[in-house]
Amino acid sequence: MKPTERFSNRVDNYVKYRPTYPAALLQFMQQVFALRQHSPIADVGAGTGILTALLLQDGYEVFAVEPNDNMRQSANQQLSHFEHFHSINGSGEATTLPNGSVDLVTVAQAFHWLQPDKARQEFLRILKPGGHIALIWNLRTTHTPFEQAFEDIKQKYGHNYTGIRKSHDPELKGFFGDLGLAEKTFTHSMRMDLPALKGQLLSSSFMPLETDPTFVNVMEELEAAFAQYQENGLVTITYDTKLHYNP
């Protein structure tokens, strides 16, 4: 399936159950990138607008660039009431934005869908002089028995899971090049009941859906892991939120 189509049948779960980003990340970007009220930001691969919403709430002007029609429409429905929200049918390689038009380009949980060389060229084109690129990932930890069990299910049943999950650290130095590269890590977590846990699992593009013959096995193993490790009907998923940027 093409990257621009992979999430079309997962939008509802994506909106409801994907993790957001910690407030400390937004505060750090505001300080380090010297962002001002209504600073223009291109949120590339914006999806359903998880990061876009946080940027808008902080008062920035956000151009949400997303090639998937269903995800972009979902973002439109949720965020169109923001005066400084702009929905863009574009991609990381072709944003359609003018030259030198934004202070910051963000890519949250979407860098692996980009063609790095073409995206870098496009980001540099649309950035103002002295602008910044911020690549962001929510990376699940495996510090607890439940988190490891959840990871094991994804590894066992996810289609090309290792290819999508792989670390991008080796290619980031080349991507940023002479811009320089810095990194900062933040931590946050989610408490989830069983329906939310199922929804989050099914929001991942690599996990089998109901039509897949392994779907029943996935749900059985997920329910067993939840039953074993839940406390008061909830489990905790912790994330290391990693930010890579040019200082």
Automatic annotation (TrEMBL):
The keyword RNA-binding belongs to this UniProt entry's keyword annotation: no
Every Methyltransferase type domain range: 43-134
UniProt keyword list: Methyltransferase, Transferase, Ubiquinone
InterPro entries, per database record: Diverse_substrate_MTase (IPR051052), Methyltransf_11 (IPR013216), SAM-dependent_MTases_sf (IPR029063)
Pfam family of the protein (one): Methyltransf_11
TM helices/strands, residue ranges: none
Any one Gene Ontology BP term: methylation
Molecular function as annotated in GO: S-adenosylmethionine-dependent methyltransferase activity
Family affiliation: Belongs to the methyltransferase superfamily.
Protein name, entry field: Ubiquinone/menaquinone biosynthesis C-methylase UbiE
Organism: Chitinophaga costaii
